[in-house]
Amino acid sequence: MAEFLIRRKENTDPNDSGKDAMLYKSGDFVLWKPDGHEWGLLENPATHPDGPAGCGFYIIKLAGVTPTPEQEARWLTGDADENEQMTRRRTWVFDISALNTSRRNTLLTTGILEAQWGHVRSAIKHKDTGETE
Amino acid sequence: MASTTVKSSGGDYTTLSAWESDKQGDLVTATEGETVTCFDLEDTTAVVMGGWTSDATYYPTIQADGDHGGKWSTSVYRLSTSGLTFKGESGCGFMRVYGIQFSTSAAGSSSTRLDAYDATQPILFDKCIAKCTHGTPTGSAGFFSWQSTTVNYVNCLAYDHYDGFNQQDDTASAVKRFLNCGAHNCTRYGFYSITAAPDSQALNCWAQSSGTADFAGTWDTGTSYNASEDSSKPGTNGQEGAISFLDEANDDFHLAASGADTVAQDNGTDLSSYTDHAFSDDIDGDTRTFWSIGPDDGSAASGIEKTVSADAVLVDRFEKTISADGVLVARFEKTTSADGVLVGRYALSASADAILKAVIELTADADSVLVDRYEKTVDADGVLTARFALTVGADAVLTGAYDLTTSADGILVDRFELTTDVDSVLVGRFALTTDADAVLKTVTGITTDADSVLVDRFIKTVSADSVLVDRFLLSVSANALLGSLAYKIILARTGYITQIDTENGYVTQLRSRTGYITQLRARDGELLG
Predict the structure, then answer these.
(1) pTM to 2 decimal places
(2) Residue, of B431 and B146, whose pLDDT is higher
C-alpha cells in the first residue's frame, strides 16, 4: 500500500499568471510514501494544529498500489521536463469531486481516505483532456 | 521569519518537497521570510522551488541542522534522487541554501539546477556538497545555472559529476560567482563558464583530476587565485599542481594536515571584505586565517603565531605542534600585559592519538613575579596520575606547595603539602598515604616554630580496614626539650604499658590497663604513687 500526499489548499498568485501556474493547486499530487509512513505534524490532517480543514494536504491511502515509474512521472511532474522552464506544477490531478459521496465526505471531514485502487482510479485525471487512470 | 522543520519523525514535514508545496507563495506581501531546517535523514523526493515571490528582506532559507564537516556525511540531511535533485525555477530569487548535501544517481541529471529568470535576485549556496553516484556521468553538473540567474556559490564542493560547476547564461546582467569552491574528479570540466559579459568570476577555487580540463570557458577579469592540476586555471595569481588532500581516495577533500599542501594552502586571497559577498569562514564553519584556495582553509604547519600591539609590544604568542596525521600534540601560549610583561603561560601536551598528557600553567603578577604554577600529568588513558601546584607570595617567596599522586585508575595514593612563612621558613608539612583502594594508610604531620624548631610531629597508621593501629605524637618545648611523648599500643588489651608521660626529662606517669603496674607517678626522682 502506498500513501499519497495530495494538495488540499490552493496556492495562488493573482499578480503573476506565470508564477501562479507554478504553484500547487488543490488536488495536485505532491509525493507518495510507502505504507505506514510517519507524516509530519503539518503534513498530516490528523495532527495539524488547525485540524483537517486547516491542513494543506489530504492523505490518500491505497491498498495494493505502488505507482509505476510511468505513473509517477505522470502524476508528479508538470508540463516541462527538467531542462525546461516549468509552465505548470502538475498536469494530472486527484479530482475529489469524482469520488462517491461517502468517500468524499470522509476525505473532506478527516483529510484522510483509505480506499482501494478501483475506488479512486477514475478520480485521477489529466487536467486538460480529462483522461483518467 | 517563520521557521519549520523537516525530520524523519516528530517534525513539521518529512520531505523538503512537502515544505516547498506548503510554503510557496508571495513572501513579500506576507512580509515574512520562510526558513526550513532539515534534520538528519535521506530525503529521496526531488525538490522544485518555483512560483515564489521574494525580495532581499523576505526570502526562503533552506538550511541543514548540524554540520557535515566538509565531507559527505550520512549523519546530516542529504537530498538524494535518481534524477534532477534540486531545481530553482522562476521565483526562487534571493533563496539561500546552507549546508545541504545533494546527490543524483543519474548519468545526465544535475544535483542542482537554477533557472531563476531574474538576474537582479542573487541566490546563495553556502557550504553545500553535490556528488553524482552514477560512475560514468555524461551530462550532469553538481551545480548548474542557466537563464539569467545571479548566484554566489561559497565554500561549495562538487565531485564525480560530468561538470562540477556548469554556468551558462545569455544575459549580461547575470553574474555567477564561485568563491572558495572545489571540483574533483569530474568527467569533463571542474568549472565551465559560458556566459554573456560580464562572465563568471572565480576566486580561490580549485579543480583537480578533471577528464578534459579543470577550468574551461570564459571568465571575468576579476577572476584570480585559482588552482588547477593542469594549466587551465583562469585569471591571475593562480597555482598549478596536485593538491595534497587529507584522504582523497575516500572523498575527503580537506587540505592535508600540518600545512603539507603547497598548492592550495595559504595561496588564496582574503575575501572578508569582498564587495559582492564578504565572508570569513570555510566549509567546516571555521574562521579562515590562512585564506587557502578551496572550501577548506587547511591547518597551519607546526609553527608560531604572534600578536603584537600597535607599539610592537608582544601581546600573545601561540605555538602549536601537529603530527603528520593532523593531531595536535602540543600547544603553547604566552600572554603579556600592555607593557609586555609576561602575565600568563599555558602549555598542553597530547599523545599521538590526541589524549591529553600534560597541562602546565603559570600565572605571574604585573612585575612578572611568579604567582602560581600548576601542572597535571595523565596516563595513556587520560587518567590523572599527578598534580602539582605552587603558590608564592608577592615577593616570589614560596608560600605553599601541593602534590598529588594517583594510581593507574586515578585513585589518590599520595598527597603532600608544605607550608612556609613569609621568610620561606618551613612551618608545616603534611602527608597522606593511601593504598590502592584509597584507604588511608598513614598520616604524617610536622609543625615547627619561627626558628624552624620542631614543635609537633605526629604519625598515624591504620590497618587495611582503616582501624587505627598506631598513633605517635611528639611535642617539644621552645628549647626543644622533650615535652611529652605519647604512644598508644592497641595491643595493650593483652597487658603491658599503654602510655608514658614525661616532664623535664623525667618519667612522670606510666600506665597499663591490665595486670601488674596500673599507674606509677614520680617527681624530681621520687616515687609519688
Answers:
(1) 0.70
(2) B146
